[in-house]
Amino acid sequence: MRRPTLLIAVVALAVVAGAAWLLWPRDAKPSTQQAVSGPYTVQFSADEPRIGGNTFAVAVTGPAPDAVTVAPVMAQMGHAFAPVVAGPDGPGRFRAADVGLPMAGQWEITVSLRGPGGPAQVVFPLLVK
User: Fold this and answer.
1) pLDDT value for 19
2) What burial letters (b/e) apply to 115-125, b meaning 16+ CB within 10 Å?
3) What is the pLDDT of residue 80?
4) Is the pLDDT of residue 25 over 90?
5) Residue 94 burial (10 A CB sphere; 0-12, 13-18, 19+)
6) What is the mean pLDDT of residues 35-60?
7) φ, ψ for residue 87 (rounded to 5)?
8) What is the rounded average pLDDT for all residues in the chain?
9) Is 42 exposed, middle or buried (0-12, 13-18, 19+ CB in 10 A)?
10) Which residue of 21, 32, 48, 123 lies most exposed, with the fewest beta carbons within 10 A?
11) Which one-letter DSSP state was computed for residue 51?
12) What does the pLDDT average to over 51-80?
């Protein structure tokens, strides 16, 4: 009678350890990409992209833009959402908060700039798991 109880306890312990390993929080590594459009160099960062509201950081070198927006598009599903205004977050830095991505998959984030260097757009791929 003791062997089955011990075996069940060992299996239960292994299941709990495996679940803890899979579900344990990990350090979020931001997805950072960079591209050039006209006089602007644009760096786009997304901290652990997910379904729901996301916050995106945009850093711009070159002429200081007057306005920065981000617009999510999922071309393969026909989803396109209105641009979200990115507010200032320091010199040459902008942050767009609560950008909704309603499903997992491959997204394209269009960063649009308007300023003294003229208008510019850069598209960044973003995978949401």
Assistant:
1) 47
2) bebeebbbebe
3) 95
4) no
5) buried
6) 96
7) -85, 160
8) 87
9) buried
10) 21
11) S
12) 96
Domain coordinates in residue numbering, the chain? 30-128
The residues, any chain, with a CB within 8 Å of residue 101's CB and separated by 6 or more, are: 49, 50, 51, 52, 54, 72, 107, 128
What are the strands, taking DSSP E only, across the chain? 30-37, 40-47, 52-61, 67-74, 79-80, 84-85, 87-88, 93-101, 105-114, 120-128
Mean pLDDT of 21-37: 70
User: How far out from the chain centre does Cα 42 lie?
Assistant: 15
∠ CA 87-126-109, rounded to 5°: 45
The class of domain 30-128 in CATH terms is: mainly beta
The one-letter amino acid at 59: A
Residues in the chain: 129
Dihedrals phi, psi of 12, to nearest 5 degrees: -60, -40
What distance in Å separates the CA atoms of residue 127 and residue 109, rounded to the nearest whole number? 10
Residue 1's pLDDT is: 53
